[in-house]
Design goal:
By secondary structure, the protein is mostly helical. About 75% of the residues lie in helices and about 0% in strands. The chain has helices at about 10-35, 40-50, 55-75, 90-110, 110-140, 150-155, 160-190.
Length: about 190
């Protein structure tokens, strides 16, 4: 599917892209600017984008949206140290999440409930990989850790990993529930 040619993209894909974009904007700005109390859904948005949209151009659009939202957050007072050379490491981090979603897409297409164990395992791997890559980038290229050993940095950031797993997992589980509910509703409509 093409995200660049509106005539070739089914309305369902535009609806999914719009919902994911809203989730990112509403929770990502809250993450930076404290406008909401919802945890940042960005990592789940990338995973669900890979699962539902799949197209690499949709990934690029999603990354572009994250960047624009971050620029807005910076204008609203987010510290500029978040926008160092380390920011470039978010691209492979988000790609790991997107590809994780793509990796389980066929299983979810075959049946959401049966796919949940595979989704969970893939999500844990993708989130852990994204966490490691983004933190390597931040440690190595943000300019704030020259005096700190890598082992000390790792020991300080590792306690945050369970939170990333929990928040991303909760959003993805919610997304899977919506998918299952929508499919069930469609089956009921078609049977009537």
């Amino acid at each position: 599917m093409s995200m660049l040619n509106p005539g070739s993209v089914p309305a369902r894909a535009w609806g999914i892209a719009t919902l994911l974009a809203c989730a990112m904007v509403l929770t990502r700005l809250g993450h930076f600017g404290e406008f909401s109390r919802l945890p940042d859904a960005s990592w789940a948005v990338f995973f669900m984008g890979g699962l539902l949209l799949r197209d690499s151009r949709a990934f690029a659009a999603c990354f572009g949206l994250a960047w624009v939202v971050d620029l807005g957050a910076m204008a609203l007072g987010t510290p500029v140290d978040c926008f160092s050379l380390a920011y470039l490491f978010l691209a492979p981090s988000y790609a790991l999440l997107w590809w994780g979603g793509r990796a389980v897409a066929a299983a979810v297409d075959a049946g959401v409930v049966r796919a949940l164990p595979r989704v969970a395992l893939t999500l844990v791997a993708a989130v852990t990989g994204a966490f490691v890559v983004s933190n390597i980038g931040y440690y190595g290229f943000s300019g704030g850790f020259e005096a700190m050993a890598a082992s000390e940095y790792a020991s300080r950031v590792t306690p945050y990993l369970p939170g990333y797993l929990l928040v991303t997992g909760a959003y993805v589980l919610g997304g899977c529930a919506v998918i299952a509910g929508a499919r069930r509703a469609r089956e009921v409509r078609q049977a009537a």
